[in-house]
Amino acid sequence: xxxxxxxxxxxxxxxxxxxxxxxxxxxxxxxxxxxxxxxxxxxxxxxxxxxxxxxxxxxxxxxxxxxxxxxxxxxxxxxxxxxxxxxxxxxxxxxxxxxxxxxxxxxxxxxxxxxxxxxxxxxxxxxxxxxxxxxxxxxxxxxxxxxxxxxxxxxxxxxxxxxxxxxxxxxxxxxxxxxxxxxxxxxxxxxxxxxxxxxxxxxxxxxxxxxxxxxxxxxxxxxxxxxxxxxxxxxxxxxxxxxxxxxxxxxxxxxxxxxxxxxxxxxxxxxxxxxxxxxxxxxxxxxxxxxxxxxxxxxxxxxxxxxxxxxxxxxxxxxxxxxxxxxxxxxxxxxxxxxxxxxxxxxxxxxxxxxxxxxxxxxxxxxxxxxxxxxxxxxxxxxxxxxxxxxxxxxxxxxxxxxxxxxxxxxxxxxxxxxxxxxxxxxxxxxxxxxxxxxxxxxxxxxxxxxxxxxxxxxxxxxxxxxxxxxxxxxxxxxxxxxx
Length: 484
Known about the structure:
By secondary structure, this protein is mostly helical.
């Protein structure tokens, strides 16, 4: 009863903001969880046929900008008002998602994705600020716990929906995302109330300049700056859940085995989770991560709260790196499922402690300023993650690249991929020339080219990051009084 009474103390705007977060996450993850597949899948099955390198550039640069821009857009929202900026955000968001159904060239998609990113950057700081302004010292912990849960509920539901929609037509994915944003527009018009905010005499230009000045001031704290640089490695590895793993599963993991296993248990369950081809879509497997967070985050957070933040981040990141590495080693879907479960426990252990630690090392009265810098390593991590999942994965693990390499080695000439010659046609011609079936070619490439070696790249980055965190914890934190 006491918990129910606590929930009733939150004002209406708190719940409206969280509902907006739910629908925004539904739209964003509805696109983002399958974006790597949409960009790289063959055009004759609805994808755009881009190379891994082009995919990495679009996702990496766009996502990096998304996490950097809130430094500016937060100041804009404080100056112009939350309702107005949310309105602009939703217009950009909805129109951007619709525009994706009309563009297919690299620069067209790149431009539209950057446009969508602008909408996201305008939205992102406002909802967090609204939650802050509609909670107080007695219920802030519960309020942000609800907010974090809502984020993961949206991230969990979205792939379940888009996995079916893209099987019908990829455009339905974009329409669904736009529809979710339209719901938010209705919430904004009829239910969202502007929270009280401090008004300043500064012009918009002065507010933006002040935001950058504050960030630079915070980064003069060497302990903070070094920690943020180290955490770029963390987010580089973590983001492979979206950048590399879906493509890897699509190309190398035989999910028919998992589909048949589920079908033997329950045909209805297999039909609900599977595709019309008798497989399990990559986004369903990677979605295990969000599902486990919803189920176990509270328990994990309760357990690790007794430990020092940096130690917890180190342990959690070790677990996360092991999980990702295991997922990229195997071609057996059951092994991949277990690996993603391991990954999720690493994320639950380490990720929430990141923001907590930044707040703990902040001088009194500068907590918000320091926490604002926590977006910077996310931006850097996304940029590097895009490059690794593009250039590096493309050269050592991409199935189409390895097929072209093998054909060239055997003196077989294949046409270059183009608008008139798709990736699917290339694979069909290669199998004909090599005298192999699809499964035989996959097995041949797996044995002779070891595409799973991509795990060495990410485990190496993970290991280097863990070592850097250990040295940081040992030698730089002796003078930090908040460390127990």
